[in-house]
Structure formats: structure tokens, C-alpha cells
Amino acid sequence: MKKKLLSLVLAATMVSSLLVGCGNDSTSANSNSTQNASDDVVVDDSASVDDSASTDNAADSSSSSDGIQVGVVLPTKDEPRWLQDQAQFEKLLGDAGFTSQVLFSQGSSATEKTNVETLISQGIDVLIICAQDASAAAAAVEAAKAEGITVIAYDRLITGTDAVDYYVTFDSFSVGAAQGQYLIDNAPSGSGIPLYLYSGAVTDNNAFIFFEGAWSVLQPKIADGTFVIANSSEAVALQDKAELTRDEEASILGQITTDWDFNVAKSKAEAHLTAVGAELKGDVVVLGPNDGTARSIADVFATDKDVTSYVVTGQDAEIASVQYVIDGKQSMTVFKDTRTLAADSVAMAVSVLNGETPTTDSTYDNGNKDVASKQTDIVVVTQDNVKSALIDSGYYDASEFTGLE
Ligand code: BGC
């Protein structure tokens, strides 16, 4: 434990300055952490960070030769979104002097559980976990909690358990609402415009929140005839309901889910366009749930000769999708600044390891409890603001893109 306290001095100070660098609103929370960390200082020369240590299998990065303080578990390496988070964690945890390890679950709840067990056996005090499956992850975090480990749900809420201490998230309702609003603002004029709905995986609580946000703005435009739902009989059956129950949402998501998989998104989009008649083609709008699936869906709609134009949303500001936006192949993306989310999580870990209560600003009901949460705003990115939102903010380098003005 002594070793940890030395790291905390560094961690609190460095995370604080990193957050100032990010320009987010968490600065004051971290100033508090710095103060508290200093109060607790016990210097022990045994503290060390070995940046060279790493393993090849599930483990992706490790920075400890004798025990790990903070374990991070992310869902998959196969989506660029989570590689952005990995990069931020490695930087922030390393800079902060934490011994840490980032593991990937590769789409499997079983691997996720094994990863958590591995981290428990390595002596972690804080687990930061983005669940593969919201309810299946409960068993894994309960095992961590039983060992006195503080559990921070990262980006995705873990449901049906008391074992989640904190939740660090983007404002996911606003993500969906921004996508829906973009379709409304950029739809062709007139009424009867075909609307294709797609969602994330039903095992991801966020998929429901995104859809709820989108439905909150789209439903009135469906009810008044501006949009005609083209690809979900369940959504059509519920189109007069402004607020849906979880079961009603589940019935719609059951039809329109992409499983967050671009291959599923592609084959569903193909099947939908094959099934509809010419009246549901022409100028269309498409709720694309995230960037990977949006690119697949866009490619399918772009090659259908009866689709004259399409507007399609996304989220995550993945490099490939930012290029699609620049090229006019994807209409928008939602930038979720992983620098802020990772920094908030690391700041929380600092507070926890100092025996302080982390700063939170909201709560999310996970079915068992209201989980104290820290929420981060999102930014809509279109051709008009790619440069200011993503390049000038230092998130990406202009050299990653072509055709950028
Ligand atoms: C995240 C999205 C991501 C999706 C698929 C969601 O939980 O919030 O950013 O695109 O999972 O991985």
C-alpha cells in the first residue's frame, strides 16, 4: 500500500495537469485530488514503473513488475473506438505513475471474466471496465468487489448488480438525440421521407440510451408524416408512442440491431433495400448507430441505383469515418473525446486510492442501484467543423486525412 501512495502524489498532480490540458470541466475535481493526495503522502522508494513489461495474449499493455494498481478491461481491439481509449489509458496511467494493465475481452464475456480474474490475482485496487455485455459482466465485477476492489464502469453501464461503484460515461442520450436531430435538419423537404433505423447491440445498455435519444426527436416527425419508417414493423407499431418502455425498445432493437458489427450492418442494409419497393427509396435518411456500422450501411445505400441520396449518422469520430465525412460519404459523426473519459476515470482512481469520494455529477439506474456517475458532453462533427473539433483540438493530426481544407 505504501508503494501506491507515492504513485498517488504523481498521479494526482499529473492527471490534474492533463485535465487542464484537455480543457474539460473536471479541473476543479482534480485540484481537490491533488490536495488530498498530498495530505496522504508516504514516500517509499520501492515504487517503480516498468514500461517495458508487456504480454502478447489478452494482455495488451502492462506497466508493472510487481503488482498492478489499476486494471482496465475494454471490449474489443477490432473497433478503432476502443483503440482510442486504450491509447488514452496507456498515456494517462503511465504519465500518472500508476502500475496498470489494459486487457481486451474480444467480444467474449468469458474472456472478460478471465481478464478480471487475472487482474484480481495481480492485486489491483481499482478496476475500470467497459462491459462486453451489460448483465453478463455483473458476475465479473462481483468477484472484484468481493476482493475489496473499487469498480468503475467505463462508457457502458453494468446492470443488475450492486457491485458497480461509479460510472464514467458520455451523455449517451444526447448522442442519439443529436443523430436524430441531424436527420431532421438535413432531410429533404416534404413528407413521406423513408427513414431506416439501425441500432447497437442489445447486450449494450448504451444501445438503448442512444435509441431513446434518437426516438425522442424522431418520433414526432414520424407521427406527423415527415418520415416513414422503412425497415421495422415493431417501430411502425409503436410510432405513435413518444415514450417507450424498455420492452418496447427491445422489440424494435431486436429487428434493427447491428450487434455493433459492420458485417451484420451490411447484410441487414442489403436485406432491407432488397425487401422494399421503389416508394421507400429515392431520397432517404438513415439512423446509423456508430461509425463502423455507418460506413457499411453508407456503402450499401451508395450502391443501390434506386437510392438517389442518403443522409446517414454515426458516432465515435473514427479516422475512417472522419475521412468519409470529409468525402461526403457519411453525413456526420459524434465526437466523444476519449481523452476526457479516460482522464475522468484516472482521476476517479486517484481519489479512490486516496480514500476520497470521487466527484460525480449524475446518477444512472442500473436496475439494482443508482450508480454515481460522471458524464461528459459530446460534439457533433460535420464537414463544417472537422478541422476545429478534431484537428485544432489536437485529437488528430491533419496528415491523417486527405481533402481537408
Ligand atoms: C460505445 C460506442 C461504440 C459502441 C460499439 C458503445 O457502447 O458507446 O462509442 O461505438 O459501443 O463498440
Could you please describe the fold and organization of this structure?
This protein has 405 residues and is of the alpha/beta class. The chain folds into two domains: 8-164 and 338-376, Rossmann fold, CATH 3.40.50.2300; 172-336 and 383-391 and 395-400, Rossmann fold. The chain has 14 helices and 14 strands. The chain has helices spanning 2-22, 27-39, 80-95, 109-121, 137-146, 172-186, 205-223, 233-237, 246-256, 262-275, 291-303, 319-327, 338-353, 386-391, and strands at 59-62, 70-74, 100-104, 126-129, 150-154, 166-170, 193-197, 227-229, 282-287, 307-312, 333-335, 362-365, 370-376, 379-381. Helix 1 packs antiparallel against helix 2. It is globular and about 60 Å long. The termini are far apart. Mean pLDDT is 86; it is low at 1-65. The structure holds beta-D-glucopyranose. Residues 79, 81, 155-156, 200, 204, 206, 260, 290, 315-316, 336 line the site of beta-D-glucopyranose.
